[in-house]
Structure formats: C-alpha cells, structure tokens
Amino acid sequence: MKLKRGSFLLSLVYLLAFGVQLSAQDLGPHFKKLKEGIYVYAGQLNDSNVTIIQTQEGIVLIDTGQTPKDSRIVVAALKKLTSEPVRYIIHTEPHSDHTVGNFVFSPPAIIVAHQGATDSMRKAENPATIEKRAAASPEMQEAYKGYRLVTPNLEYRDKMTLNLGERTLELYYLKNVHSEADTAIWLPKERVLFAASAAGFTPRIRFETHSAMAIRDLVAAGVGVALLARSAAVCPGPPIATHAPHPVIPHPPIAVIHRRDRSLSPAARA
Ligand SMILES: [Zn+2]
C-alpha cells in the first residue's frame, strides 16, 4: 500500500510468537486460543478484542469488549472455561470501546490502567450516548442492564509488573500514542505481546509494495513494522489480531503488524 509521511493513526492489539497454532475452542465462534490458557475473543471485524488469561490464581482480562454484549459473551465463555474469578482487568486504553463492559466484571475484578485513564473516562462519559446505544436493540438493552461507569481501581506510572500464579504480566505505558493512557502488556515467559494503539508518528518508509504476503513475510523476517489493509492482516497466516483505530480510518481499514521478538515499534515507544 502507498504510504505518505505524516500523521498516522495506527492500531494494534497484540502480536504473537510465530508458529503458534490457533485451535478451535469450545468457547464460541469468535474465540481463538493463542497459547495454553490464553484466549482472545474477537467479535465483529474492526471491533476491539477481549483477551482471557488463565492463571493459577484466577483470570486476567485485557479490555472488556466493544459493547457490554461482548462482555457478556466473555462471561458465558468463562463459565465454560473455569470456576476461577476474574481478578484483574487491564485496560490497553480508556476509550469506551475497550472499557464500557467494566461493570459486568468489577467489582470484584480490580481494574488496572495507566495514570490518566480514570480522568479520561470520566470526561468522556455521556449518559445520552449510553442510552442511545442501549436502545439499539432488545439484545443490547439486556446487555446494558446494570450499566454504570466503572473506572480503574489502580493507576500505575510508566511500568508495572503483575505476578499472578505462574504468570508474569509486564505493563508498559505507551506515551503520546493514541489516548491519555495506552498500555502494552508483555508476557515474557509466553513471549506474547499485547500492544495497544499507536498514533501520530512519522515513519521511515523502507519498502512499499502491493503484495500483502510480501509485507507479512518481511515483517516475519524482522524488517520492521508494516501497515496493511485489515483484510490482509486477518486472513490466514501468522496469527495477528487487530482492533479498530480511533477514529476509524475508512478506506481501507488498517492494521499494524510487527515481529514478535523485537522491542516495541517506534510508534509504540514514542
Ligand atoms: Zn481508542
């Protein structure tokens, strides 16, 4: 695809170790298993994801879904998966399409986000919008039952480590990337990175091509970060998932892909 220097809105939820085989799960049609005990729920195309991380000491969720309907689908899946409670929710960003389902899980789940997330959520809260979304369908009305704004219980600065059972989750603040409080989550033992959104940086363009597979191969080989039409990023190949940029880039929907074992992209480090 053709890229020009300038301001880009980029978005990427996570990247994975290459070679990981996704297998169908009994959790539902939109769930994928990334690694043992790590699952992603990806609803509609361009919607945000929810990640379920099982630990010996309970569940960690990354984000709560595009809408409370998604949150409730995750609740149903969790019932099939475990009797363990959701202990922590980590926000990759404070925007409502990642956080509106907090009320479904918390309390008792403890919500963790970077400093600034609570202020951002409070400022953005708009009861009229919530009412409108809840009224969209009887199904949505049901999903929004009991809605209230639930903001983070803990806000960290720059870096935080969460140790839970056998898992270690490292949270990194992504400065000036997409929102006031973007977080990437790295699981060092599992070598899984959940990178949040990236925005507004000037990339050094090394290579442009119309071949999506060539781009994927180059990224897999460690050449760098790439922007791809979302359709090309989600088609069969290395398991990469995406979420919607804000605002949505209309044509084409864009995804960022990145090699698993490199440090965060220039955008993510910005
Ligand atoms: Zn956002």
What's the short story on this structure?
Helices cover 23% and strands 26% of the residues. It has helices at 68-81, 96-99, 102-105, 117-124, 127-134, 138-143, 212-220, 230-234, 266-269; strands spanning 9-10, 31-35, 38-42, 49-55, 58-62, 86-90, 110-114, 154-156, 159-164, 167-174, 182-187, 192-194, 198-199, 226-229, 254-257.
Q: Report the helical percentage.
A: 10-25%
CATH fold-type name: Metallo-beta-lactamase, Chain A
CATH class: Alpha Beta
Determine the mean pLDDT. 77
**Main sheet?**
7 strands, mixed
> Any idea what the CATH superfamily is called?
Ribonuclease Z/Hydroxyacylglutathione hydrolase-like
- What is the number of helical segments per DSSP (H or I, 4+ residues)? 9
Strand order of the largest sheet: 2-3-4-5-6-7-8
Give, in order, the helices and strands: EEEEEHEHHEHHHEEEEEEHEHEH
List of distinct ligands in this structure:
zinc ion
CA-CA gap between termini: 23 Å
Strand content: 25-35%
Rg over CA atoms:
18 Å
Which CATH architecture would you pick?
Answer: 4-Layer Sandwich
Q: What's the total number of strands?
A: 15
Q: What is the domain tally?
A: 1
Descriptive terms for the model:
270 residues; alpha+beta; 9 helices; binds zinc ion
